[in-house]
Amino acid sequence: EELLAGIWAEVLGVERVGVLDGFFELGGHSLLATRVVSRVRAVFGVEVPLAALFDASTVRGFAVVVDGGRGSGVPAVSVVGRDRVLPLSFAQQRLWFLDRLNPGSAEYVMPLSIGWDGPVDVERLRVALSGVVARHEVLRTRLVVGDDGVAVQVIDPPRAVELPVVDVSAGGDAQAVLVGEAARPFDLAEGPLLRAVLVRLSARRHVLSLVLHHVVADEWSARILRRDLMALYDGVTLPPLPVQYADFAVWQREALPAEVLEGQLGYWREQLAGLPVLELPVDRPRPPVRSTEGA
């Protein structure tokens, strides 16, 4: 319980957590819950489902779940050889399918803008950005369809990242540059799936525009990217990562082999067989061409 309380305090950014305190009452949410599960895996060597934290949301209740997971037989994520076929994770597979369904779409393009006050050493920033891409394999990964029609991960060797500078200090439209970068789609097979532009607003004000495809990043990992980028720009030496995203994808596939998934799907097919289709009224008709506008 003491270790778990420390993990919760670290993740939630609070000074102290009591054993009867509720994770979500303290400001937790699903993204932070994922971090708790990751830290539990690293500290206790136990794999617990994310839903367990929603069901047992106090330190004391979750400790029972963690204790029950000991000796469950689910191995920790470990490094696999890069000379083998590297499958997509389930999340990557979903996004790859959606990209094939609607090619050329920018719906899953993730823009990340970092404001920069003060002068910028452009070459130093470019080297730091290249260092981040070298450190995280997923940022230099492409999703390529093999001869069997199945998409796999292909990890490219580290290389220098291009960092063009767009100067709008004389009256250009910085917002138009940022929006334009976010609107450009990616080719998941060709890559790279990260691009960068430095927008110069004045001699002492810049915006670093990083644009990634959601298949290689999410909100949590974007924060890690920013943290590592700033550390490398400041000259900090970062230790090598113990595992990479491809290792996780292999672990996930091996933890849930096809026969297990088929059994679970079979259960729900049986439960939902013959279920009537419920036609719900909507307040507005669907347009002839699907729009990405939200309201």
Topology diagram in text:
Elements: H1 2-12, H2 30-44, H3 50-55, H4 59-69, H5 90-101, E1 109-117, H6 122-135, E2 141-145, E3 151-155, E4 165-167, H7 174-183, E5 194-202, E6 205-213, H8 219-233, H9 245-255, H10 258-272
Helix pairs in contact: 1-2, 6-8
What does this structure look like?
The protein is built from 10 helices and 6 strands, in the order H-H-H-H-H-E-H-E-E-E-H-E-E-H-H-H. It is α+β, with helices and mostly antiparallel strands and 295 residues long. The strands form 2 sheets. It has a 4-stranded mixed sheet with strand order 1-6-5-4, with helices on one face. Strand 5 and strand 6 form a beta hairpin.
Radius of gyration: 22 Å
How much strand?
A: 5-15%
State the helical fraction.
40-55%
Task: Quickly give the structural class.
Answer: alpha+beta
Helix-strand sequence: HHHHHEHEEEHEEHHH
Mean pLDDT: 90
Per the principal axes of the C-alpha atoms, what is the gross shape? Answer: globular
- Strand tally, please? 6
* Strand line-up across the major sheet: 1-6-5-4
Q: Describe the biggest sheet?
A: 4 strands, mixed
End-to-end span in angstroms? 44 Å
Task: Please mark out the parts with pLDDT under 50 across 5 or more consecutive residues, or reply none.
Answer: none
Structure annotation, total helices: 10
